[in-house]
Amino acid sequence: xxxxxxxxxxxxxxxxxxxxxxxxxxxxxxxxxxxxxxxxxxxxxxxxxxxxxxxxxxxxxxxxxxxxxxxxxxxxxxxxxxxxxxxxxxxxxxxxxxxxxxxxxxxxxxxxxxxxxxxxxxxxxxxxxxxxxxxxxxxxxxxxxxxxxxxxxxxxxxxxxxxxxxxxxxxxxxxxxxxxxxxxxxxxxxxxxxxxxxxxxxxxxxxxxxxxxxxxxxxxxxxxxxxxxxxxxxxxxxxxxxxxxxxxxxxxxxxxxxxxxxxxxxxxxxxxxxxxxxxxxxxxxxxxxxxxxxxxxxxxxxxxxxxxxxxxxxxxxxxxxxxxxxxxxxxxxxxxxxxxxxxxxxxxxxxxxxxxxxxxxxxxxxxxxxxxxxxxxxxxxxxxxxxxxxxxxxxxxxxxxxxxxxxxxxxxxxxxxxxxxxxxxxxxxxxxxxxxxxx
Length: 439
Known about the structure:
Blueprint: H1 4-7, H2 17-32, H3 39-46, H4 52-59, H5 65-76, E1 84-94, E2 104-108, E3 113-127, E4 132-141, H6 179-195, E5 203-205, H7 213-221, E6 225-230, E7 236-239, E8 253-256, E9 267-273, E10 276-287, E11 294-303, E12 309-316, H8 323-332, H9 335-345, H10 357-382, H11 390-407, H12 416-427
Parallel strand pairs: 1-5, 5-6
Antiparallel strand pairs: 1-3, 2-3, 3-4, 6-12, 7-8, 7-10, 9-10, 10-11, 11-12
Helix pairs in contact: 2-3, 2-11, 3-4, 5-10, 9-10, 11-12
Protein backbone atom coordinates (compact mmCIF):
# COMPACT_ATOMS: atom_id res chain seq x y z
CA UNK A 1 0.00 0.00 0.00
CA UNK A 2 1.51 3.42 -0.95
CA UNK A 3 2.68 5.70 1.82
CA UNK A 4 0.87 9.03 2.23
CA UNK A 5 4.15 10.88 2.79
CA UNK A 6 5.58 9.51 -0.46
CA UNK A 7 2.36 10.33 -2.31
CA UNK A 8 2.41 13.96 -1.17
CA UNK A 9 6.11 14.49 -1.85
CA UNK A 10 5.31 16.06 -5.23
CA UNK A 11 3.41 18.86 -3.43
CA UNK A 12 6.39 20.11 -1.45
CA UNK A 13 7.27 22.65 -4.15
CA UNK A 14 4.09 24.68 -3.61
CA UNK A 15 3.06 24.01 0.03
CA UNK A 16 4.75 25.05 3.25
CA UNK A 17 6.13 22.14 5.31
CA UNK A 18 3.71 22.84 8.16
CA UNK A 19 0.65 22.86 5.88
CA UNK A 20 1.91 19.75 4.07
CA UNK A 21 2.31 17.92 7.38
CA UNK A 22 -1.21 18.98 8.43
CA UNK A 23 -2.57 17.86 5.06
CA UNK A 24 -0.99 14.43 5.55
CA UNK A 25 -2.63 14.11 8.97
CA UNK A 26 -6.01 15.12 7.58
CA UNK A 27 -5.75 12.65 4.67
CA UNK A 28 -4.87 9.76 7.00
CA UNK A 29 -7.83 10.66 9.19
CA UNK A 30 -10.22 10.88 6.22
CA UNK A 31 -9.06 7.48 4.95
CA UNK A 32 -9.71 5.80 8.29
CA UNK A 33 -12.72 7.72 9.65
CA UNK A 34 -15.96 5.78 9.98
CA UNK A 35 -18.40 8.59 10.70
CA UNK A 36 -19.18 11.98 9.20
CA UNK A 37 -16.20 13.92 7.85
CA UNK A 38 -16.28 17.03 10.02
CA UNK A 39 -13.48 18.95 11.73
CA UNK A 40 -14.42 17.35 15.04
CA UNK A 41 -14.37 13.88 13.50
CA UNK A 42 -11.03 14.50 11.78
CA UNK A 43 -9.50 15.67 15.06
CA UNK A 44 -10.63 12.46 16.78
CA UNK A 45 -9.09 10.22 14.10
CA UNK A 46 -5.89 12.19 13.49
CA UNK A 47 -4.11 11.05 16.62
CA UNK A 48 -0.96 12.80 17.82
CA UNK A 49 -0.26 16.03 15.97
CA UNK A 50 -3.83 16.44 14.75
CA UNK A 51 -5.66 18.30 17.49
CA UNK A 52 -8.88 20.19 16.84
CA UNK A 53 -7.00 23.48 16.89
CA UNK A 54 -4.56 22.13 14.27
CA UNK A 55 -7.47 21.08 12.05
CA UNK A 56 -8.94 24.57 12.44
CA UNK A 57 -5.65 26.16 11.40
CA UNK A 58 -5.47 23.94 8.34
CA UNK A 59 -9.00 24.83 7.20
CA UNK A 60 -8.14 28.52 7.55
CA UNK A 61 -4.95 28.20 5.48
CA UNK A 62 -4.85 29.69 1.99
CA UNK A 63 -4.01 26.90 -0.48
CA UNK A 64 -3.83 26.83 -4.27
CA UNK A 65 -5.99 23.73 -4.74
CA UNK A 66 -5.82 23.93 -8.53
CA UNK A 67 -2.03 23.61 -8.42
CA UNK A 68 -2.18 20.85 -5.80
CA UNK A 69 -4.64 18.79 -7.82
CA UNK A 70 -2.66 19.26 -11.02
CA UNK A 71 0.63 18.16 -9.44
CA UNK A 72 -0.99 15.07 -7.95
CA UNK A 73 -2.73 14.18 -11.22
CA UNK A 74 0.33 14.76 -13.37
CA UNK A 75 2.72 12.73 -11.19
CA UNK A 76 0.49 9.82 -10.16
CA UNK A 77 -2.52 9.18 -12.43
CA UNK A 78 -2.04 10.55 -15.95
CA UNK A 79 0.09 8.77 -18.56
CA UNK A 80 2.27 10.68 -21.03
CA UNK A 81 0.52 9.12 -24.03
CA UNK A 82 -3.02 9.71 -22.72
CA UNK A 83 -5.72 11.68 -24.55
CA UNK A 84 -7.00 14.34 -22.14
CA UNK A 85 -10.35 16.13 -22.35
CA UNK A 86 -11.71 18.95 -20.22
CA UNK A 87 -15.16 18.77 -18.68
CA UNK A 88 -17.25 20.93 -16.40
CA UNK A 89 -20.43 20.74 -14.36
CA UNK A 90 -22.14 22.22 -11.33
CA UNK A 91 -22.67 20.40 -8.04
CA UNK A 92 -25.15 21.51 -5.39
CA UNK A 93 -24.47 20.79 -1.71
CA UNK A 94 -27.46 21.08 0.62
CA UNK A 95 -26.90 23.06 3.82
CA UNK A 96 -29.13 23.93 6.76
CA UNK A 97 -29.10 27.12 8.78
CA UNK A 98 -28.53 30.67 7.61
CA UNK A 99 -24.91 31.47 8.51
CA UNK A 100 -22.93 29.52 5.87
CA UNK A 101 -21.03 31.77 3.48
CA UNK A 102 -22.54 31.73 -0.02
CA UNK A 103 -25.79 30.08 1.10
CA UNK A 104 -28.50 30.52 -1.54
CA UNK A 105 -31.25 28.52 -3.19
CA UNK A 106 -30.02 26.49 -6.18
CA UNK A 107 -31.76 23.98 -8.39
CA UNK A 108 -30.70 20.42 -7.61
CA UNK A 109 -31.37 17.79 -10.26
CA UNK A 110 -31.12 15.14 -7.52
CA UNK A 111 -34.13 16.60 -5.68
CA UNK A 112 -35.81 18.02 -8.77
CA UNK A 113 -36.35 21.42 -7.14
CA UNK A 114 -34.49 24.38 -5.68
CA UNK A 115 -32.90 23.67 -2.31
CA UNK A 116 -30.96 25.82 0.18
CA UNK A 117 -27.27 25.11 -0.12
CA UNK A 118 -24.04 25.88 -1.92
CA UNK A 119 -23.23 25.52 -5.61
CA UNK A 120 -19.76 24.81 -6.98
CA UNK A 121 -18.38 24.80 -10.51
CA UNK A 122 -16.09 21.80 -10.97
CA UNK A 123 -13.66 21.57 -13.88
CA UNK A 124 -11.97 18.21 -14.39
CA UNK A 125 -9.62 16.45 -16.75
CA UNK A 126 -10.91 13.27 -18.40
CA UNK A 127 -8.54 10.45 -19.22
CA UNK A 128 -9.73 8.62 -22.35
CA UNK A 129 -7.29 5.79 -21.66
CA UNK A 130 -8.35 5.23 -18.03
CA UNK A 131 -12.00 6.26 -18.55
CA UNK A 132 -11.74 8.35 -15.40
CA UNK A 133 -12.37 11.95 -14.39
CA UNK A 134 -9.91 13.85 -12.20
CA UNK A 135 -11.25 17.10 -10.66
CA UNK A 136 -8.83 20.02 -10.77
CA UNK A 137 -10.80 23.17 -9.93
CA UNK A 138 -13.77 23.59 -7.59
CA UNK A 139 -15.00 27.17 -7.35
CA UNK A 140 -18.09 28.50 -5.52
CA UNK A 141 -20.87 29.93 -7.66
CA UNK A 142 -22.63 33.01 -6.40
CA UNK A 143 -26.04 34.11 -7.58
CA UNK A 144 -25.97 37.63 -9.08
CA UNK A 145 -27.72 40.05 -6.78
CA UNK A 146 -30.56 42.13 -8.17
CA UNK A 147 -29.41 45.55 -9.29
CA UNK A 148 -30.44 48.28 -6.87
CA UNK A 149 -32.15 51.27 -8.36
CA UNK A 150 -32.55 49.67 -11.75
CA UNK A 151 -35.12 51.33 -13.97
CA UNK A 152 -38.19 49.24 -14.71
CA UNK A 153 -38.32 47.84 -18.23
CA UNK A 154 -40.14 50.04 -20.66
CA UNK A 155 -42.80 48.49 -22.86
CA UNK A 156 -42.24 49.02 -26.55
CA UNK A 157 -45.02 50.57 -28.54
CA UNK A 158 -46.65 48.15 -30.90
CA UNK A 159 -45.87 48.95 -34.49
CA UNK A 160 -45.57 47.14 -37.76
CA UNK A 161 -44.62 43.49 -37.75
CA UNK A 162 -41.28 42.23 -38.93
CA UNK A 163 -37.79 43.58 -38.86
CA UNK A 164 -37.38 47.28 -37.99
CA UNK A 165 -36.35 49.44 -40.90
CA UNK A 166 -32.63 50.20 -41.00
CA UNK A 167 -31.58 47.39 -38.63
CA UNK A 168 -28.38 45.50 -39.49
CA UNK A 169 -27.41 41.87 -39.23
CA UNK A 170 -25.84 40.89 -35.92
CA UNK A 171 -22.43 39.26 -35.76
CA UNK A 172 -23.16 35.97 -34.02
CA UNK A 173 -19.45 35.50 -33.30
CA UNK A 174 -19.15 38.75 -31.34
CA UNK A 175 -21.53 37.80 -28.54
CA UNK A 176 -21.86 39.48 -25.17
CA UNK A 177 -21.27 36.77 -22.60
CA UNK A 178 -23.51 36.48 -19.57
CA UNK A 179 -21.95 36.68 -16.07
CA UNK A 180 -22.16 32.90 -15.65
CA UNK A 181 -20.40 32.27 -18.99
CA UNK A 182 -17.70 34.81 -18.17
CA UNK A 183 -17.20 33.08 -14.82
CA UNK A 184 -16.76 29.69 -16.50
CA UNK A 185 -14.50 31.12 -19.21
CA UNK A 186 -12.24 32.75 -16.63
CA UNK A 187 -11.67 29.44 -14.84
CA UNK A 188 -11.15 27.55 -18.10
CA UNK A 189 -8.36 30.00 -18.90
CA UNK A 190 -6.86 29.44 -15.45
CA UNK A 191 -6.92 25.68 -15.90
CA UNK A 192 -5.36 25.90 -19.36
CA UNK A 193 -2.62 28.13 -17.98
CA UNK A 194 -2.01 25.61 -15.20
CA UNK A 195 -1.74 22.68 -17.63
CA UNK A 196 0.47 24.71 -20.00
CA UNK A 197 2.21 22.43 -22.52
CA UNK A 198 2.09 19.23 -20.46
CA UNK A 199 -0.97 17.94 -22.37
CA UNK A 200 -2.77 19.12 -25.46
CA UNK A 201 -6.43 19.67 -24.60
CA UNK A 202 -8.69 20.10 -27.62
CA UNK A 203 -12.27 19.48 -26.46
CA UNK A 204 -14.40 20.92 -23.68
CA UNK A 205 -17.43 18.88 -22.59
CA UNK A 206 -20.57 20.19 -20.93
CA UNK A 207 -24.18 19.05 -20.66
CA UNK A 208 -27.20 20.49 -22.46
CA UNK A 209 -26.81 23.78 -20.59
CA UNK A 210 -24.20 24.71 -23.20
CA UNK A 211 -26.40 23.88 -26.18
CA UNK A 212 -26.46 27.43 -27.57
CA UNK A 213 -24.30 29.78 -29.60
CA UNK A 214 -23.09 31.98 -26.72
CA UNK A 215 -21.61 28.98 -24.93
CA UNK A 216 -19.94 27.73 -28.09
CA UNK A 217 -18.40 31.14 -28.80
CA UNK A 218 -17.19 31.31 -25.19
CA UNK A 219 -15.40 27.98 -25.59
CA UNK A 220 -14.02 28.87 -29.03
CA UNK A 221 -12.56 32.12 -27.63
CA UNK A 222 -10.22 30.08 -25.40
CA UNK A 223 -9.11 27.87 -28.30
CA UNK A 224 -11.16 24.74 -27.52
CA UNK A 225 -13.89 22.87 -29.36
CA UNK A 226 -17.22 22.32 -27.63
CA UNK A 227 -19.01 18.96 -27.34
CA UNK A 228 -22.51 19.19 -25.94
CA UNK A 229 -26.15 18.34 -26.58
CA UNK A 230 -28.97 20.17 -28.37
CA UNK A 231 -32.66 20.02 -27.69
CA UNK A 232 -34.41 17.08 -29.28
CA UNK A 233 -36.54 19.40 -31.43
CA UNK A 234 -33.78 21.79 -32.54
CA UNK A 235 -34.36 23.28 -35.98
CA UNK A 236 -31.42 22.14 -38.12
CA UNK A 237 -30.94 22.68 -41.85
CA UNK A 238 -28.93 20.96 -44.54
CA UNK A 239 -26.57 23.23 -46.50
CA UNK A 240 -28.20 24.50 -49.67
CA UNK A 241 -26.72 22.85 -52.76
CA UNK A 242 -29.16 24.13 -55.38
CA UNK A 243 -28.49 26.56 -58.25
CA UNK A 244 -27.74 30.23 -57.81
CA UNK A 245 -30.47 32.46 -59.26
CA UNK A 246 -28.07 35.19 -60.34
CA UNK A 247 -28.97 37.99 -57.96
CA UNK A 248 -28.93 38.66 -54.24
CA UNK A 249 -26.94 36.70 -51.62
CA UNK A 250 -26.38 33.02 -52.16
CA UNK A 251 -28.84 30.83 -50.34
CA UNK A 252 -27.41 29.33 -47.15
CA UNK A 253 -30.05 27.08 -45.63
CA UNK A 254 -31.49 24.10 -47.42
CA UNK A 255 -34.12 21.62 -46.37
CA UNK A 256 -35.01 21.35 -42.69
CA UNK A 257 -34.03 18.11 -40.97
CA UNK A 258 -36.86 15.70 -40.24
CA UNK A 259 -35.69 13.51 -37.37
CA UNK A 260 -38.16 10.77 -38.31
CA UNK A 261 -36.97 10.57 -41.94
CA UNK A 262 -33.23 11.22 -42.03
CA UNK A 263 -31.70 10.22 -45.40
CA UNK A 264 -29.94 6.87 -45.30
CA UNK A 265 -26.80 8.40 -46.85
CA UNK A 266 -25.96 9.85 -43.43
CA UNK A 267 -26.42 6.55 -41.60
CA UNK A 268 -23.18 5.48 -39.89
CA UNK A 269 -24.10 2.37 -37.87
CA UNK A 270 -26.99 0.11 -36.84
CA UNK A 271 -27.05 -2.10 -33.74
CA UNK A 272 -29.61 -4.32 -32.02
CA UNK A 273 -30.07 -4.89 -28.28
CA UNK A 274 -33.05 -7.20 -27.65
CA UNK A 275 -36.06 -5.26 -29.02
CA UNK A 276 -34.22 -1.91 -29.30
CA UNK A 277 -32.72 -0.88 -32.62
CA UNK A 278 -30.15 1.94 -32.51
CA UNK A 279 -29.31 4.00 -35.59
CA UNK A 280 -26.57 6.62 -35.59
CA UNK A 281 -26.43 9.43 -38.15
CA UNK A 282 -23.72 12.05 -38.66
CA UNK A 283 -24.19 15.25 -40.63
CA UNK A 284 -22.78 18.76 -41.01
CA UNK A 285 -25.75 21.08 -40.55
CA UNK A 286 -26.69 24.69 -39.98
CA UNK A 287 -28.55 26.10 -37.01
CA UNK A 288 -29.94 29.60 -37.49
CA UNK A 289 -28.88 30.66 -33.99
CA UNK A 290 -25.27 29.43 -34.37
CA UNK A 291 -22.50 31.29 -36.17
CA UNK A 292 -20.75 28.24 -37.65
CA UNK A 293 -21.78 24.95 -39.15
CA UNK A 294 -22.02 22.12 -36.63
CA UNK A 295 -21.12 18.46 -36.63
CA UNK A 296 -24.37 16.78 -35.64
CA UNK A 297 -24.77 13.20 -34.42
CA UNK A 298 -28.34 11.92 -34.05
CA UNK A 299 -28.87 8.71 -32.08
CA UNK A 300 -32.28 7.20 -32.89
CA UNK A 301 -33.62 4.32 -30.79
CA UNK A 302 -36.65 2.34 -31.96
CA UNK A 303 -38.66 -0.20 -29.98
CA UNK A 304 -39.47 -2.89 -32.53
CA UNK A 305 -42.48 -4.12 -30.55
CA UNK A 306 -44.23 -0.80 -29.88
CA UNK A 307 -42.60 1.09 -32.84
CA UNK A 308 -41.97 4.05 -30.55
CA UNK A 309 -38.87 6.12 -31.27
CA UNK A 310 -36.67 8.49 -29.31
CA UNK A 311 -33.61 10.41 -30.36
CA UNK A 312 -30.71 12.41 -28.91
CA UNK A 313 -28.94 15.23 -30.74
CA UNK A 314 -25.25 15.72 -29.96
CA UNK A 315 -23.09 18.37 -31.58
CA UNK A 316 -19.54 19.63 -31.79
CA UNK A 317 -17.89 22.72 -33.23
CA UNK A 318 -15.15 20.50 -34.75
CA UNK A 319 -16.30 19.53 -38.25
CA UNK A 320 -13.60 16.83 -38.53
CA UNK A 321 -14.62 14.87 -35.43
CA UNK A 322 -15.89 11.34 -36.14
CA UNK A 323 -19.25 10.24 -34.79
CA UNK A 324 -17.85 7.39 -32.66
CA UNK A 325 -15.37 9.69 -30.92
CA UNK A 326 -18.01 12.37 -30.36
CA UNK A 327 -20.34 9.85 -28.69
CA UNK A 328 -17.53 8.31 -26.67
CA UNK A 329 -16.26 11.67 -25.44
CA UNK A 330 -19.74 12.85 -24.47
CA UNK A 331 -20.34 9.63 -22.53
CA UNK A 332 -17.10 10.21 -20.65
CA UNK A 333 -18.57 13.46 -19.31
CA UNK A 334 -20.69 11.41 -16.91
CA UNK A 335 -17.53 10.33 -15.07
CA UNK A 336 -17.65 13.74 -13.39
CA UNK A 337 -20.86 12.64 -11.65
CA UNK A 338 -18.91 9.80 -10.03
CA UNK A 339 -16.52 12.43 -8.63
CA UNK A 340 -19.46 14.19 -7.01
CA UNK A 341 -20.81 10.89 -5.67
CA UNK A 342 -17.48 9.91 -4.08
CA UNK A 343 -16.87 13.39 -2.68
CA UNK A 344 -20.28 13.38 -1.00
CA UNK A 345 -20.35 9.74 0.09
CA UNK A 346 -16.78 9.29 1.32
CA UNK A 347 -14.93 12.61 1.60
CA UNK A 348 -17.31 14.98 3.37
CA UNK A 349 -18.65 17.25 0.63
CA UNK A 350 -22.09 16.98 2.27
CA UNK A 351 -20.75 16.78 5.83
CA UNK A 352 -18.54 19.83 6.44
CA UNK A 353 -20.09 22.29 8.88
CA UNK A 354 -17.88 25.33 8.27
CA UNK A 355 -19.59 28.69 7.88
CA UNK A 356 -16.82 31.16 6.98
CA UNK A 357 -15.59 31.77 3.44
CA UNK A 358 -12.09 30.25 3.67
CA UNK A 359 -13.06 27.07 5.60
CA UNK A 360 -16.01 26.48 3.27
CA UNK A 361 -13.77 26.81 0.22
CA UNK A 362 -11.14 24.50 1.71
CA UNK A 363 -13.76 21.96 2.80
CA UNK A 364 -15.19 21.61 -0.68
CA UNK A 365 -11.80 21.51 -2.39
CA UNK A 366 -10.42 19.02 0.15
CA UNK A 367 -13.30 16.65 -0.65
CA UNK A 368 -12.55 16.86 -4.38
CA UNK A 369 -8.81 16.57 -3.72
CA UNK A 370 -9.46 13.32 -1.86
CA UNK A 371 -11.08 11.94 -5.03
CA UNK A 372 -7.72 12.28 -6.76
CA UNK A 373 -5.86 10.89 -3.73
CA UNK A 374 -8.09 7.80 -3.75
CA UNK A 375 -7.43 7.29 -7.48
CA UNK A 376 -3.68 7.57 -6.89
CA UNK A 377 -3.80 5.08 -4.00
CA UNK A 378 -6.10 2.59 -5.74
CA UNK A 379 -4.35 2.60 -9.12
CA UNK A 380 -1.29 0.48 -8.12
CA UNK A 381 -3.60 -1.99 -6.36
CA UNK A 382 -5.68 -2.48 -9.51
CA UNK A 383 -2.67 -4.13 -11.18
CA UNK A 384 -3.02 -7.17 -8.93
CA UNK A 385 -6.62 -6.74 -7.80
CA UNK A 386 -9.05 -5.31 -10.38
CA UNK A 387 -12.00 -4.96 -7.99
CA UNK A 388 -10.24 -2.77 -5.42
CA UNK A 389 -12.67 0.01 -4.39
CA UNK A 390 -12.85 3.05 -2.11
CA UNK A 391 -14.52 0.94 0.58
CA UNK A 392 -11.59 -1.48 0.46
CA UNK A 393 -9.14 1.43 0.68
CA UNK A 394 -10.86 2.87 3.75
CA UNK A 395 -11.08 -0.59 5.32
CA UNK A 396 -7.32 -1.05 4.91
CA UNK A 397 -6.44 2.29 6.53
CA UNK A 398 -9.00 1.78 9.30
CA UNK A 399 -7.54 -1.66 10.04
CA UNK A 400 -4.06 -0.17 10.06
CA UNK A 401 -5.25 2.49 12.53
CA UNK A 402 -6.72 -0.10 14.89
CA UNK A 403 -3.63 -2.31 14.73
CA UNK A 404 -1.16 0.50 15.37
CA UNK A 405 -3.15 1.87 18.30
CA UNK A 406 -3.42 -1.64 19.79
CA UNK A 407 0.27 -2.47 19.36
CA UNK A 408 1.22 0.73 21.18
CA UNK A 409 -0.01 -0.96 24.37
CA UNK A 410 2.62 -3.71 24.08
CA UNK A 411 5.82 -3.32 26.16
CA UNK A 412 8.00 -3.91 23.09
CA UNK A 413 7.15 -3.13 19.42
CA UNK A 414 6.77 -6.28 17.28
CA UNK A 415 8.49 -7.02 13.97
CA UNK A 416 7.35 -4.81 11.02
CA UNK A 417 6.54 -7.91 8.93
CA UNK A 418 4.23 -9.12 11.69
CA UNK A 419 2.53 -5.67 11.76
CA UNK A 420 1.87 -5.85 7.99
CA UNK A 421 0.35 -9.30 8.37
CA UNK A 422 -1.93 -8.17 11.18
CA UNK A 423 -2.99 -5.07 9.23
CA UNK A 424 -3.85 -7.18 6.18
CA UNK A 425 -5.91 -9.51 8.36
CA UNK A 426 -7.75 -6.65 10.07
CA UNK A 427 -8.55 -5.06 6.71
CA UNK A 428 -10.51 -8.21 5.79
CA UNK A 429 -13.18 -7.25 8.35
CA UNK A 430 -14.57 -4.29 6.44
CA UNK A 431 -13.51 -5.15 2.92
CA UNK A 432 -16.12 -5.51 0.19
CA UNK A 433 -13.98 -7.33 -2.40
CA UNK A 434 -11.69 -10.16 -1.38
CA UNK A 435 -8.54 -11.53 -2.96
CA UNK A 436 -6.39 -14.57 -2.38
CA UNK A 437 -3.03 -12.80 -2.13
CA UNK A 438 -3.42 -9.29 -0.76
CA UNK A 439 -0.23 -8.89 1.26
